[in-house]
């Protein structure tokens, strides 16, 4: 070949290879994650990216700046590695309750099937998958950037590590099961045949933990339509009651992809999508619903083998699985766990649900494998009306255990109890099922006959997962006045709506009658609407009014009883100073808290029974005649003794004894645990008083004007868990004064409220 031609060919080849390399480099650069983070007052990150991967990258980085130690600890749990890093006998939070690390690890290594989760995730939308992968990259980038510079709580700790997509899927799936399998996890991983010594050491009392089931899951959600709102638009009040500590805290965030997504509000820690929030056109909130999200199957055991059960008369062997857990404090722990065609075996010793030689129980969970929440909330974030929100709820069936209240700028309000629930018809449940009442920490159980294959969950066409209850069989209500929920059933959403029964899987009220918070909410809403309409300020004042509904019902009668010679004089004198509210300046409020806790636990305290046609005003009229009155006074006396033993003055103002500890600072906190107080605050005794650990969390009041959403909000415990952060206590001080801040949303609002310079990050 001519040397000149050979040289030219070589040059051409090198040029083509160089061009290909440049194209490859360009493609790799285009695939990198990029985001900009602008902080506004109180540390709210406004994350902007050009795609969903960049958005996940940016919001993970921002959240890690505020909560890396908490996030890392939660991912240790999700990976089933608490025993490896903290020791098997140590304790952490498993869901909402404390549990031994070994129990947490065994649960996460056995009940969720990571292979199944990967397959489920592969079917999710490209946007959701990119969001999660970007989140993993953003979290890992922060860990890399901050090597040697982490907060004191986790500095130098090996458990602050790079995460994988599996860790995130396990974490999200665990949250989906929060009020189903996770709530009974220790009873699952300690289940053993009656011949096993383990069965005798696995007795876990029903009341373990700080929060009884009946009190743990409070929230208030209100949505008003055009007939009830000044200006004829929609208005939403979100007041979820969730933990102040641990992995189920909320975190405020604003996520933007120009032209594709613009949503703000709050998310649960380690979740890269807004769960309660607002957009240009809609606002929404959630409360814990009453629907069933798991069932138990009662198993008739083979008389010759307690690890085999009968279905249609034929024995089936339980599946045995050995799970090994590394232990920081000793040898690895090996446990044999048991499962069935329905799900894992559960055993609650010394109860009707113990594993005996004749009977065992298995758990079937509609939320195990529920990774659909990301697509659900991305769908809500792109909704233009509440009808679009309902469509996203129905299509994905990804809401794990929650009601939805929403309103749009046109002034339509929505209530929907559309979530992941078992598809069991009323006819099948009548033939196969029974329901128990709640006890201590245990949920209400829906129990089906596992010995008959015809008693299994039913299939329906078009469902996103097997045997889920179709949205058409659940509850949807549109209104122009209002919808509300305070964790009672859909029946009391708006009594004027006259909602009909929706089947057994939608559940019933947690108690025998509607909770006092439901009655209080209905009373306050209807009181306002009799003479005026709601605006943002009135809605905010109402939800944080701290009125005690129980005081309205019983305080006059109790003070009259105080005239009896058997009355405890000091307690009566203190109670006479109380204003019937849970405000910071309310004297003797804590005394009434303790008293109402005792009084309300007794049956038959009312002389006027519950009337379903009058849920606000019944039941009422405290029974005080003869011995009934003496029992009331004994409750008051006993409650006073409890406070005295704690060194608490009976007439102490709430500001002196209920506080959030932030370093050396004690921030007074209003609200109460029960009695119909809307601003729920559940506390535990600490030196000098009581500290909140569960209650009002992310509060938002949202309406719309001609420019877009107008939002006041507060995160009661503040954005950061790092004591060194400027965002560790700032919103807690605002909440102490019942102040909500304006949540910036538009570009102009963000620019006007920006703190420091935007942070640009890329990978």
Number of helices: 22
Q: How much strand?
A: 15-25%
Give the proportion of residues in helices.
25-40%
Oligomer: single chain
Radius of gyration: 28 Å
Largest sheet: 10 strands, mixed
End-to-end separation in angstroms reads 47 Å
Q: Would you spell out the secondary-structure blueprint of this structure?
A:
Elements: H1 3-31, E1 34-40, E2 44-48, H2 52-78, H3 82-86, E3 91-94, E4 97-100, H4 101-110, H5 114-122, H6 126-145, H7 165-176, H8 185-189, H9 197-201, H10 213-216, E5 219-224, E6 235-243, E7 250-257, E8 261-268, E9 276-278, E10 282-288, E11 294-302, E12 305-311, E13 314-317, E14 319-325, E15 333-339, E16 345-346, E17 359-365, H11 373-381, H12 386-396, E18 402-408, E19 413-417, H13 426-432, E20 433-435, E21 446-449, E22 475-479, E23 482-485, H14 516-529, H15 536-543, H16 549-561, H17 569-575, H18 589-599, E24 606-608, E25 620-622, H19 627-645, H20 654-657, E26 659-662, E27 665-668, E28 681-686, E29 689-696, E30 698-705, E31 708-715, H21 730-736, E32 741-742, H22 747-753, E33 759-762
